[in-house]
Amino acid sequence: MAFAIENNNIVLDNSSGANIPGTPSAGQTVLYPKADKLLYYKDDAGVESEIIRLAQFDKSLTAAGYQVLPSGLIIQWCTSASTAITGGANTDITTTLPIAFPTAGLFSVCNIQAIGNITANVSSTNANAITTTTVTGQVHTTTTQNLTLRYIAIGH
How many domains does the chain have? Predict the structure, then answer.
């Protein structure tokens, strides 16, 4: 294994896959590349671990997007279609999330996207109103109008 400093970066070359270090001294950690082109570290107990890969931070930074964290937690945001709301009634507005949560939707909140002169009250969504693929917000208005909701959802 060889290393060099180029443009203030440490360059490690272990293309042969040889020279995997032994257990470091007490209180030390060793960083090294392997033939799979990933960077690893080994602690003073001899435990080898892969360093976080950037692919674990999958994302879509669009109007309906998401951020996947290395822990598996996913944060998503989206906007519902404009929906006709009848005055004096509670109306559920369900919207499909940008990606499905692999295991469960945990929490979501919503608010009204301001469109003109709105006279509505919105209640936040609750745990019963989120699935792995959808979020639902409930709207109560005093007049009949079209509304759009914006959501933030958290799941894994």
Answer: 2
